[in-house]
Structure formats: structure tokens, C-alpha cells
Amino acid sequence: MKSAPNISCLRQGVSLRDLAQVVALRLEGASAFALLDRMSTAPIYVREGQIKQSLFLLPDGKIFADILIASGGGGFFVLSEGPSREDLLSYISTYGGDAALQTSIVDLSEAYDSFGVGGPFAWEFVRALLGPTVLGMGHLTLIAVGPERKTLCFRTGMAGEYGYCIFVPKNESAHVRETLSQLAAQFDLETMTQGDLELAAVEQGIFNISLLNALGSLKTLGPIELQLQSRVGFERSFVGAESLNHKRLHGTTHRTTSFSAASLLAEGSPILLEGVKVGTVLVTRQSPCRGDVVGLCLLEKKYAHPGIDAFFAHIDEGLIQIFTKTPPLLTNRSLAVNSLVHAYATRSTANFPPLVIE
Amino acid sequence: MTMQTKLESYLEDRERTLAQVRQLLIASLDLKRPPEEIDPDMALFGSGLGLDSIDAVEIVIALETELGVKLEENTDRQRALRSVNALVDVVMESKRSQLVSTEIAP
Amino acid sequence: MAAMLEGRDGLRTIRRFDTSAFVSSWGGIWPAWDDRVQAPLSGGSSLLNGSLPFPADEMALCAAQEALSQASLEKLDSLRVALVLGTCFGQGFTRFHELTESLAEKLGLRGPRVTLSTACSSSTNAIGMARDLLVDGSVDIVLAGGVDVLLQESFAGFNAIAAMSVAKCAPFGEPYGMNLAEGAGFVVLERSSDAADRGVCVLGSIDGYGLSSDAHHETSPDPTGVGVERAIKAALIDAGISESHIDYVNAHATGTESNDRIEWEAIERSLGQRSKPVPTNGLKSFLGHTMGSAGVLELILGLLCMNEGMLPPTLRAHPSRPGAPGDPLDGKNPRKQDTRSALKLSSGFGGANAVLVHRSAPAFLCDTKEDSTSGLHASSVALPALVELQGCAVVGGAAVDAISLCSYIDNELPVSQTSGSINLAAVAPMVDPRRLDRASLALTKAVATGILDAGIGMSFDELDRVGLFLGATRMSVDSTTRCQASLNRFGPAGMSAVAFSRMSVNASAGACSKSLGLRGPTSTLSIGAGSDLLAIVYAARSLSRRTDTCQIVAAGLEESPEDAQASVEGFSAVLRRLTNAPCSGAILVAGWGIAGPGDLQTAAAAALNDGILPDSVWADVPHAKNALGKSMPDASNLRCGFRNLQKVFPLARNATVTLALPAAVYKLRTKAMRSLLLLSGKGQSAAVAIVLRMV
């Protein structure tokens, strides 16, 4: 498969990602905080150089955008996935009120080129590209590097591995691209496709908004069913808070659960316990690293637990067994890598734990 | 035991342990959240709860003192502390092996 | 010293308490206490009682007497002798300024007593502050140092945060980890001209110091090392020398993975690229980590070697770990090498960094012969600058609007102090309150409110260089209770890591600095009653004489533990060094003074440095009028009279005077008064005074 080498780069080496799906904005002004505060589901606890995961919702509680909010240089950055640039700006002006009018909002793509890097040795690659200061970065932090400190490096992680989103000012971009292509061969660099990213998300058991938006009727699932409550401060007021709290008070009936199976399954396939439907398949993907299929399903809360092998689903040839699991569905090599000791070039000599432990 | 009863019994254990782990996290980490707002697959470090090294130690100590579960080596600890469900897995495993050892003892 | 020459360290297996529950059994123990045992922790034993067989003042007394006898002080006026003591845990984690007061009484010292509690950098900061007291002429002699006792509770705490080494510690080497130890050490400091007049033998000179705050994490140092770098640079500026003069670094070097590498990187950056790396050692390889006394003991050890033309080694630095210094003075025996100026580095929990610049006796005497002036490095005594009070705030039960507060004070009527929950959202919405205990929340709110009152924004750039000096007399109630509870329930292996990480008096200052991004100089001091006012004095003095920063927030905290709904008060005063002439309408901290306990006259006289009577005097003691009457005959005719603030804040114990600050500022701004003397004389440690004046 074409995707196999790319995903294995993410899981064992270094992979590249284009950030075309990401809309990056810079917000400045005295009202910037207030503006973000009314849209963000998460409380904006960010010190200088810190990044927080959040969501933007629609008034009906549906997820509009997968958001990262970062504080830096007296203002904020918003990295958004899901909506187009136009839709995002329209959302901000619709729901931002006066605060939106008083805040300076700039799309970073006007002045920056950007790309993402991910994988257990992504730190080594980024150090070669941008210098040693990146090694001191904690997870979900942001620093400015480069000759004029204008290159932005966000350490955001990528599906459980080391991951960085890098924004280079256009006038320095050529130089960085050159260095990048020189390093590419050294690190066997491959570029992840959208499909790779979705697979990585399912393997990791993490939220991916394009997967959600691709669902048919089930794309109305909200943060509670999707296990995104860590991004929500329920006592806050944000767009969609009322609907969300209404849902919370009435109780939700289902929750997502990760699973593995021998074959791909159609979206919407019922999940059966002794012939009775207890849930629905949301998405499955073939996992080259694991050698089987990984997936996400929606189950009645009573059954939404890992470690169950009693469920079945239909494929053309009959019923197949599905196995609910605690994500991630493979081990993240990044956790075993020590920047003081390991290097990409000598990775085969290191005794890393296997990617699949079962 | 039929499959159904075995499953029911497992689910009961799971819910009970999940409740215990949620309580443990809330108490030891000053989380101002009700238990049902702590998703079972919620990550503990990095994203999710965004805990740090001191919180990690606090959890390990609380696991031992409150639930009698000792986390040994580094990889053991790393895996156990990935998410709430990972902690539940470890606690249930520990209870199972305690049960087994009491069965084996004369 | 003899042991050091032979390469023998002081680390032994601990027999004082049962170490089987811990990863390590190694510690540095005072042989005089070898026959004493600490009872196993049991439910109901209090932190204080458990420490009684090991009185910190006993160990401190022993060291202090040795130091004083060497300095021949018999004929001196004890009112002009100060004591500055650094300690992490005081006596039983509960008595801090009381410990210092007890020691001073036993030694017959009657000048001001100050307790510094910035965790492991306490005694280093103490020596720096002692130097300030001498430079200012507040006193003539300072006994400065530190003490801390090794107890199973502290052992349990460091075990809980996984900091300890399974073997003898090996700074810059292997294995990783620290050894806990105990100790007491003192140096007697005097202005060199006075020492010369008295013909006393000099053991070295303290030429300057610097402080900084990491603002990063409760127990781990900032991985960028910027904090340590700033403290080094501030120390060099204070000493008036360039980094090229430093030819030896006596590092903090605990041996832990997080500390040593970062510390060396910061040292290298601060001292610049050299063809041969500057010799840097870790004396904790000999002493273990003696906590509050680490700075002074390691300084003494270093100086004694330097005076013999040698540099002490770092034991077990080989095999070295990645990121170790180029020259860690690895070996068993001292190396023959002459040095001129050296650095002593210390870093503590809460991110408090302190650096001393010092010279050996031979280097000092040599330089003095060449430099025929007073002997103090002339360039370090900068022309004093004016200090402005930009803003202030009071939070907690005693917080009342300024106008009402004026009325209470005018009539000396009591403000009813209530307690309630503290919410940061209004003043600091980007601060995550999780893991901030009640004291830290109150302090953060007080400081943030003060910063807003001063009209300063809360952006990174605006706050990065701002310092925080805290007057606090105890560890936070929440954390002490939680620690005690975890020990009682689970024994030593079950000590709460979160609670222990906050078991230092400066923990709130560290948490506040981290929340707001304050990376300027930081210190936490106590004199019991009046600690809040002393924080303002220390901040004003630092801004007036030093140039490493131009803004410091002075703050204070008071918690009363007895109530179930423990009340907490916090105050802050934002001070700024003025580089130009003050605008009209500015309020200046026009003078300040510190003196021995109860000595209001001397403190007031120092504050009223131009001799002009203030319009009013507000004090925390009823007899201020009588006390001042002797030195200020016209005192009974003050235009706006005396006010006894204890009547206005009847429940206040340690922080009283600063609760009135918003009223003081209001009266000055509305020209009801032009100047005001604030006095604290209630405490057993020191009397403190400041004068606020409207321009």
C-alpha cells in the first residue's frame, strides 16, 4: 500500500505533514482574550508560550472546529481544523460580538509558509532544522526561533508521537525548504496524506474532525459522546454551552470506544451482542503497523468499555468478532525515545518495545 | 457461566473500578470535576488532563495507598499512566492476580 | 577541612529513623546526634512534636558560637549586631522566625533578626541580605548563615518526588539523585574598614549577590536555565565586575537529573566562551544536600580551600554524565589553583535562585592594597535612586474599599474580618487555579490586583523582569495539613508529593511567580509581625541600590489556621525605581529603616532620613507615640496624629500595617496628607519603618 511507508515514518521515524487543513490566525488587541473566551469550550489557561486544546461549537452543540489556542508575544494564536478559512472568520464575526470588531485578526498564511513534522525522531529533525532550543520545549508549548525570532514552532504532538507545526516567514522560507530537502534523505522523510492522518487518529484513539465530518447522520455527536470533556469547562459560557449543558443534564446514552477487528466494516454497521444491537460502527481503517483493522464505534454506555470480545458485526461473508480496546492501539515509540541517548541513524540498535503489544 | 453473565460480571467490575479510579484522581489531583466528566479514555499527560511529573507521583502513591496497586518498572508505569482506562486496566489486572494467588495458596 | 583534604565525605547510612520504605538510606548526619532516634511516624503525631529530639537551634547555636568566637566581638554594642538565618524547614516545619529569635536571645544579639526561607537557596540569600545591611549602615556586624535538620518527614518528601539517589550522590556524575543531609553554618560579616580598624583576621570577602525566579515549576528548574543566568548576571553587576574575573564556580549541583545539566549550561552561557572551561564543583558530594544551610556551608568549604590556594574537588564526578561541566574538578583531593573571584550558586524549590560573588582572603588583601579607598568595591555602591509606590492591593477578609478604610482608621474602629473563597477570574483569568492552594491563590490575587492598580499590563514582556519579595511567616495551611494527613494515614511511603512540593515558606511566592510570569529577583523573608513591611523595605532598598531590575512587587501573606474556614489576608505593593524625576502626584517610598526588636526609635529615625516630621504615624503598637516622643519631641503635635492599626485590624497578627496601604495611598493622593510614617514594632525579631511621601 502507498500509505504504508508514510504511516511507518510517523510511527518509527519522521514524517512530514502539510498544514493545508489547518487555518492559523493571529489575534491581537485588548479584546482578544474576551473574544476567545466566548468561543472556546476550554478555559483559556495559557501562560506565555503555552498551548491549550479546545473546541468551537455551534449553538446546537455540534462541533464546528478542533482548536488549539496559544499565547505568545502579547497576543494569541489559534490553530483550527475543520472549517475553511472563510467559514472560520465568519464564525468569529457572527459569535464574537464587539470583541471581534476590536480584535486584530490576521491569517498567518499571508506572511508564513507552514508544515508539520511528526514521529519518534521528529525532535532530532526539527533540531537540525531550527536549532537546539527546540529540545527544551515541553508538550503543548510554542517558541519563536530563527535569525529574527520570527519562525514559530508549536510543539503539538501528532497522534501520540512527537509533533511540531512550524511557521516560517515567507522571506526565510526558501532557506528552510532547502535545509529540509537536504535533511529529507537523511531521515527517509515521507509526507502524510489526509488518509494517513485519519488512520493515525484511529490507531491512537484520538479525535479527528475530518473523520467526524465524513460521518453521515452521526456527525451530530458532541463532546460528551466523543469523550472530549477534558476540553470543556461546563460552567463557562461559550457558543453552544446551553445545548451542551442541556445534553449533560439529560444524560447521554452512548459513548465512543476503540476496537480492532479482522476486516473493514461499513460506517453505520450495527454492533451486536448475541444478536441484539448495542452500538454502531463509526469508522474503520486498515492498520499496516498492526496488520489488522482499527476502528472507532459508538456503544451504549453500559457496554462502552475496553477488553470485551463478545461483540460482533456483519460483513458480506458473515459475522466477525470485534475486540474493544484501551487506546492507543499501538505503543508510541516516542515515549521510549531519549534525546540524550538515541538517534534516528542508530535506531535499529536501540531496544525499543514493539509497536504492537497484545 | 454463560457468556452473558461473564460479560455482566466484567462490566460490573469495570464500572466499579472506573468509579474508584475517578475518585482517586479527583481527590489526589484537586480536580474540580464531577466523576462523570472524566472520560474513560481521557489522556492524563500532554493533552487530556495535562498533568505533570508531580501529579504522576501523586497518582502512583495514591494507587498504592488507596487501592493497593504497586506500579513497578518504567514501562509499566508509562503504560498505566496513559489514560484513565489504562489505570483501570492496571487495577483490574492487579485484583485478578491477587485473586489467583489466593486461590493457589494452600 | 581535614576530612576534605583526604577526600572523605560525610555521607553515611541513616540510623536515626527507619529508611526501609524509601529508595535510599544515605544521608549526611551530624555526629553529635548519633545516639538520638526519631520515633516512627504514627497517626496523630504532629510535625512539630516529631522534630523535638532534634532542635535546630541546638545545632545552630553550636555553629554560631564557633563563628562568633573567631570574630572577637566581645566589646561590641549588641544592638548593632544582626542575625540573618536561612532555613527550609525551621523547627518542625512550624517555627521559623521563632527559631531565629530564640537563637539571637541565646547569643545575646539585640539587633534586627531576619529569617530567610527560599528553600535550598536560603542561606545564600541570607548572606547577600547581610551584605546589604552592612552597606546601608543599618548595623555593624551580621551573623549570617543557615540551619536545617534531617528528619524522616523531609526524607519522605524527597523520596516522594523521586529526587533521591540510591547510593552516595554524584553531582555531574553517576548515579543520578541527591542525598539529604543536615547542617548549620554561619559567617560573621563586617564592613572591611571596620574589620581593618579592629585588626580582625579576614577570611574572605562577599562582593555582591543576585537573585532571580525561574517561574517555571514547584520543584523542577526551568530547563532553559534563564533564571540561573539572570541571577549570575545580577550578582556580577552588584559586585561591579565582569564575568571574565570569575575563575571558580561553587555550584548548587544536587546530583539530580534535572538540576546539574541545566545549571552548567546556564553557567557556561553567563561566563562566556572560554578556551578552558571554568572549574566548577559540587560540594554536595561531600556534605550531601544540607538544605537551608547548603549555601553557607558550601561557601565556607570553598573559601577555606581557596585560602590555601586550592580548589575543592567533586567526589564521584567520574564517570561524568552528559551535559557535565568541562572541568568538574573531578577527583578525591583538592587541586592546587589560585583564584581571584568565585561564584556560589544555589537554587531552591519554587524556582528561587541566589548567587554570591566572593573572593578568598589572599585575593581580597591583595586587591585592597592596590585599591586604596574604603575597601568596598567602589563600583558596587551605586548612587541611590528614588523609589515610587505605583500601586497596591489588599485581598481577603480585611479588604475594604479605600474610603471606608480611611474612616475606620481615622476613628480607630475595627474592620470586621471575614473569610470567603478566593477567585482569580476577575484579575488573572489566564491563571489555572488547580494546584494553587489557598495561600497561593490569595497571594496571586493580591499581586495581580496590585499590578492592575499600578496600571501595568499583564503581558509577558511587562512582567518578565518584575521581582517578587514575600513576607510570610509559615508554610501554607492547606499544604501542611495535607502533608500531615498523608503521613498519618499512610506513613512515610505515602507522603503526598503534591503537598510536599509546596512545603516551603516560599512556595506561594513560587506559585505566584509562575502563574504571572514574574522572573525578576525573588525572596521570602520573615520577622514574625512586620514581615509584610519588611518585604517593602527589602524591595525598596533593592530598587534603590541595584540595577538588575526596575520593578519589584512587595507582598505579604497571613493565614490563621485555627478556624476551619481559615482566613487568609494578602497584600501587595508594586514598587518602581525612578530613572527620571518623579511626576507630581507620585507617591515615593521616601525612607526606610530596620532595627532590633522593639526599637521603634532607631527604625523611625532611619526612615525619616531628612529629619522632617511626617504628617501622621500609623503603627501596630499602641506605644508608638511614647516610643517616638523621646527622639522626636514635637511628635505629639503631628498634624494628623498617631493611629494604632491593631485596633483597626484586631485579628491581624503578623501582617497588620500593610492592610492599611490602600487608605494610605488614598489619603496621600487626595492630599489629606503629604507624608506618612508606617511602623511595625510588635514583633520579637525587628522593628521596621517606612515613610511614604507625596511628590
Characteristics:
B: mainly alpha, Non-ribosomal Peptide Synthetase Peptidyl Carrier Protein, Chain A, C: 695 residues, alpha/beta, Peroxisomal Thiolase, Chain A, domain 1, 14-stranded mixed sheet, 5-stranded mixed sheet, 23 helices, 32% helix
Structural class of chain B: mainly alpha
Order of helices and strands of chain A: HEEHEEEHHEEHEEEHEHHHEEEEEE
Described by its quaternary structure, the protein is: heterotrimer
**Assigned CATH class of chain B:** Mainly Alpha
Query: How would you sum up the major sheet of chain B?
Result: none
Please tell me the total number of domains of chain B: 1
H/E element order of chain B: HHHH
Largest sheet properties of chain A: 6 strands, mixed
The Cα radius of gyration of chain B reads: 15 Å
Low-confidence stretches of chain A: none
Spans of chain B of at least 5 consecutive residues whose pLDDT stays below 50 are none
Q: What's the helical proportion of residues of chain A?
A: 10-25%
pLDDT averaged over residues of chain A = 94
- Can you tell me the CATH superfamily of the domain at 209-325 in chain A? Aminomethyltransferase beta-barrel domains
Q: Based on the structure given, which CATH architecture of the domain at 209-325 in chain A is correct?
A: Beta Barrel
Alpha carbon gap, first and last residue of chain A: 24 Å
Topology:
The complex is a heterotrimer of chains A (358), B (106) and C (695).
Chain A: H1 3-12, E1 15-17, E2 22-28, H2 32-39, E3 51-57, E4 63-72, E5 75-81, H3 85-95, H4 97-102, E6 104-107, E7 112-118, H5 122-130, E8 141-145, E9 151-155, E10 163-169, H6 170-186, E11 190-192, H7 194-204, H8 209-214, H9 241-250, E12 254-261, E13 270-273, E14 276-287, E15 292-300, E16 311-315, E17 318-325
Parallel strand pairs in A: 1-11
Antiparallel strand pairs in A: 1-7, 2-5, 2-6, 3-4, 4-5, 7-10, 8-9, 9-10, 12-15, 12-17, 13-14, 13-16, 14-15, 16-17
Chain B: H1 3-29, H2 53-67, H3 74-80, H4 84-104
Chain C: H1 2-6, E1 11-13, E2 26-28, H2 47-51, H3 56-71, E3 81-86, H4 97-107, E4 113-116, H5 122-135, E5 141-148, H6 152-160, E6 180-181, E7 183-190, H7 192-198, E8 204-213, H8 226-239, E9 246-250, H9 257-271, E10 280-281, H10 284-287, H11 294-307, E11 310-311, E12 335-336, E13 341-348, E14 352-360, H12 361-370, E15 386-396, H13 402-410, H14 438-453, H15 460-463, E16 467-471, H16 477-490, H17 497-500, H18 507-516, E17 522-526, H19 531-545, E18 551-560, E19 567-578, E20 587-595, H20 600-607, E21 616-619, H21 624-629, E22 642-644, H22 645-648, H23 661-669, E23 675-680, E24 687-694
Parallel strand pairs in C: 2-6, 3-4, 3-5, 9-10, 9-13, 16-17, 16-18, 21-22, 21-23
Antiparallel strand pairs in C: 1-2, 4-17, 5-7, 8-14, 11-12, 13-14, 15-19, 15-20, 18-19, 20-24, 23-24
